[in-house]
Design goal:
The complex is a heterodimer of chains A (about 160) and B (about 290).
Chain A (H helix, E strand, L loop, with lengths): L3 E8 L2 E8 L4 H8 L18 E4 L2 E4 L12 E3 L12 H8 L9 H14 L5 H7 L11 H18 L1
Parallel strand pairs in A: 1-5
Antiparallel strand pairs in A: 1-2, 3-4, 3-5
Helix pairs in contact in A: 2-5
Chain B lengths: L6 E3 L4 H11 L3 E4 L5 H6 L7 E4 L9 E3 L3 E5 L4 H6 L1 H6 L1 H7 L5 H6 L2 H7 L5 H8 L3 E6 L2 E5 L1 H4 E3 L2 E2 L6 E8 L5 E8 L9 E10 L2 E10 L5 E2 L1 H7 L1 E2 L3 H12 L12 H24 L3
Parallel strand pairs in B: 1-3, 2-3
Antiparallel strand pairs in B: 4-5, 5-10, 6-7, 6-10, 8-9, 11-12, 12-13, 13-14, 13-15
Helix pairs in contact in B: 10-11, 11-12
Classes of the chains: A alpha+beta (about 160), B alpha+beta (about 290).
């Protein structure tokens, strides 16, 4: 069954147009069609959070959306967050606090963290833990990730003063 | 872990959606937030011939204060329900329950209509529909109908939705004045599905409890426990009455038994959580909230 749909989607500011099959997951569209492999794919059923990206300003699981549903949306992936030479403040905070080991969960942690800090600029540690609870990390034990988000929140507040 | 092939349809109005659903046949599914449906597709537990994506039907996305009740459109995202000031004012118990619904990214996408239609026995929203006497409104090409939670929830993942029908709206009748509430849930981790949940309201005027509602999740569908509710009605419910009502509640159903908890464990949790929910409601009433 050939069921192709023409979509036009903005990813990190750049416009992509093309035909996609109905069943193509947004995560596979990013990784395999666009070859943007920063978005990781772990469980493919919405549990691990590794594929979290931003869609029109809100974090979503890319494995629980179809590419065709992103038609007309503006997406942000970890590639759009910062560069090695110019890290996003949350990425810099992750670096300083050793908030990653193997790095598999990191893109999802970062995108969740960005959305979380936008919605909860004054978060307590408990709220940070709740905010990150949908993202699994098997290396760090989470302590350093929480510390990184806490520090990024404090820096963000300082900067906005 | 890739979904099977299906035809994708994206209506922009409700009338277009019901037409598409009628012509797509019995193996078509409605796609809203997709936070339960897409995992089932990825696992190939379902093979729908067509998915009718209602995400662009803006007429299903609203929260409206009517005379008799609050009307919530099926496409209202969990994040919006969780943070709505109108819901916090009218149904603080719903606001509290929403804090327990999944995780940030899931709440950004998941919808009230989707969660209610999916009818997961461990989900908070069906429990709250049961507590709040929700009117669940369904539309098909042949018209609309309105069901109560006990008419709608038939079993685990099983509802009264018929072929060609879409859940369009939830109406929550306002609670009487002087109603206090309690919500308690036990889950293994933050954001996990509940193993047991209990939600209660008590309407207390001049020290007398006029109405009590006790809803529990932990069996095939969320249930109300009228026998326990009746025990609370009367002059200022005592701690002994709370304990006895919770004991009765724990005997009220055949609790689920699965990988996460045995029926016996759930029974103990029902007893504990119903008592806690009732106590927290009474504490709120005493402290004037």
């Amino acid at each position: 069954m050939s069921d192709l749909h023409h979509i036009s989607v903005r990813v990190n500011g750049a416009l992509y147009e093309g035909d996609v099959e109905s069943r193509l997951l947004l995560s596979d569209f990013l990784r395999e069609t666009l070859r943007m492999t920063g978005t990781h794919v772990g469980c493919e059923h919405g549990v691990c959070g590794a594929c979290t990206i931003m869609a029109d300003g809100h974090s979503v699981r890319a494995c629980l959306m179809f590419a065709v549903q992103a038609d007309g949306l503006s997406l942000q992936t970890v590639e759009g967050l910062g560069k090695v030479s110019d890290l996003h403040p949350l990425q810099e905070s992750f670096r300083q606090h050793h908030a990653l080991q193997c790095g598999f969960c990191t893109p999802g942690m970062l995108m969740t963290g960005v959305d979380f800090l936008e919605k909860h600029p004054d978060a307590t540690d408990e709220e940070i833990r709740e905010g990150l609870s949908g993202n699994l990390c098997r290396c760090t034990g989470y302590e350093h990730i929480v510390a990184a988000v806490r520090n990024a929140a404090a820096k963000k507040k300082e900067a906005s003063r | 872990m890739k979904p099977p092939a299906f035809q994708y349809l994206r209506p922009t109005s409700l009338s277009e959606a019901v037409d598409m659903l009628a012509s797509a046949g019995e193996d078509a599914k409605v796609l809203a937030g997709g936070q339960s449906l897409v995992p089932m597709l990825n696992f190939r537990l379902l093979k729908p011939t067509a998915l009718i994506d209602i995400n662009r039907i803006s007429e299903l996305d609203f929260i409206h204060e009517d005379e008799a009740g609050l009307r919530i459109g099926a496409l209202t995202r969990h994040r919006v329900t969780q943070t709505s000031p109108i819901i916090a004012k009218r149904f603080p118990v719903l606001t509290e329950a929403m804090q327990h619904v999944a995780h940030l990214a899931i709440r950004n996408r998941g919808t009230i209509g989707g969660s209610v239609s999916h009818a997961d026995p461990a989900a908070e929203l069906p429990l709250l529909m049961t507590l709040l006497n929700a009117k669940i409104k369904l539309t098909s090409k042949s018209g609309t109908r309105e069901l109560s939670p006990s008419e709608f929830f038939l079993g685990a993942l099983t509802t009264a939705l018929e072929e060609g029908e879409i859940l369009t709206e939830i109406e929550l009748p306002y609670l009487p004045d002087n109603t206090c509430w309690g919500f308690e849930e036990f889950a293994q981790r933050s954001g996990d599905f509940a193993i047991v949940g209990a939600a209660v309201t008590l309407t207390i005027n001049a020290g007398n409890c006029d109405e009590c509602r006790i809803a529990v999740l932990g069996s095939e569908t969320p249930i109300r426990i009228p026998d326990a509710e009746r025990m609370l009605v009367g002059p200022s419910p005592s701690a002994e009455v709370v304990t006895a009502a919770a004991e009765l509640a724990s005997e009220a159903a055949e609790w689920n038994s699965d990988l996460h908890a045995t029926a016996e464990f759930r029974k103990q949790l029902v007893r504990t959580l119903v008592a806690r929910a009732l106590k927290s409601a009474l504490d709120r009433q005493r402290s004037g909230h």
